[in-house]
Design a protein that fits this description.
It is built from eleven helices and ten strands. About 30% of the residues are buried. With about 290 residues, the chain is of the alpha/beta class.
Length: about 290
């Protein structure tokens, strides 16, 4: 059995099934063990009367027992034939638990269901995991389930920074291996940024920016594409990344998009979001987020 395990995080019984289905598929493909952790937490600070430590512990035990009772039949049915362990955890911030309470070197990736509805694409926990995950994070869309799907990797090929080149390298390596295991097609997408203001003023034209666009890329980025035989699999479009990548995903029938996280987790990221977050807000696909490390 592969030493690297899969870690499934559950914060909702209602949407747990999708993450378990994805975990089973990946576990059987890679001969991996699955660790499942379901979280519960009850804020007691607003209760009008004080609870004793014994009462707080009893409340915690009752909530976790209820959670386990609800999930055990589902997990047993969905993960039949798989090696897995299941535990519940009383924790207010699962993203903090992920970073502080376990050895993430033991895991290949975290798998969690992302709930998509008419109001939002992600829960608050989803965003916290996206911004702070120390390992690969697979967010499975709960609006569908398909065993075989094409993959689109969103690359930033314009940067000459070594860190960006390494991140692109990781995305491509991870994506190609994933495509081989799942018997699907792997594509890469790169957006030549076009300022909407300059475009609307007629000062910049998309067609002009795409002329010899590949040859204008930094040499290490060009070589990365060539070395991985992706020249014919690379789609270069002009515009805004948050518009181009979702459009490419639809065109290529890609139900999984791989995005690198640049680690922009400060106040700026929380207020306006970085480019990766802007792209994700418009995607209804599965997402695989790779952190900088």
């Amino acid at each position: 059995m592969d030493k690297k395990k899969l870690l499934v995080l559950i914060d909702s019984v209602e949407f747990a099934k999708t993450s378990l289905q994805h975990a089973k598929q990946k576990a059987l493909q890679g001969n991996k063990h699955i660790d499942i952790v379901a979280f519960s937490f009850e804020e007691t600070g607003n209760i009008l009367f004080s609870l004793s430590p014994e009462q707080l512990l009893a409340l915690q035990d009752k909530c976790l027992a209820s959670l386990r009772a609800q999930l055990e039949p589902l997990i047993s049915a969905e993960l039949e034939g798989c090696s897995y362990t299941f535990q519940t955890a009383w924790h207010e911030a699962p993203e903090q638990w992920l970073n502080e309470d376990i050895n993430t070197d033991d895991y290949e990736m975290v798998i969690k269901t992302r709930h998509i509805d008419s109001d939002s694409q992600f829960s608050e926990l989803d965003w916290q995991l996206i911004r702070f995950t120390p390992i690969a994070l697979y967010l499975a869309a709960d609006n569908k389930w398909r065993k075989h799907t094409n993959i689109l990797a969103a690359l930033d090929l314009a940067s000459e920074k070594t860190a960006k080149h390494k991140l692109n390298q990781s995305i491509i390596k991870y994506g190609l291996a994933y495509a081989q295991r799942t018997d699907c097609e792997f594509y890469a997408g790169y957006t030549v940024y076009i300022s909407p203001i300059l475009r609307d003023l007629g000062l910049v034209f998309s067609e002009e920016q795409l002329v010899n666009a590949f040859e204008k890329l930094p040499q290490p980025q060009q070589q990365l594409i060539i070395d991985n035989n992706l020249r014919d699999k690379l789609y270069i479009k002009a515009g805004l990344p948050e518009q181009v990548i979702p459009s490419l995903a639809a065109k290529l029938n890609a139900d999984l998009v791989i995005i690198g996280s640049v680690g922009n987790v400060g106040i700026k990221a929380k207020l306006i979001g970085n480019t990766a977050e802007k792209i994700m807000r418009l995607l209804k696909t599965d997402l695989l987020i790779l952190p900088p490390n």
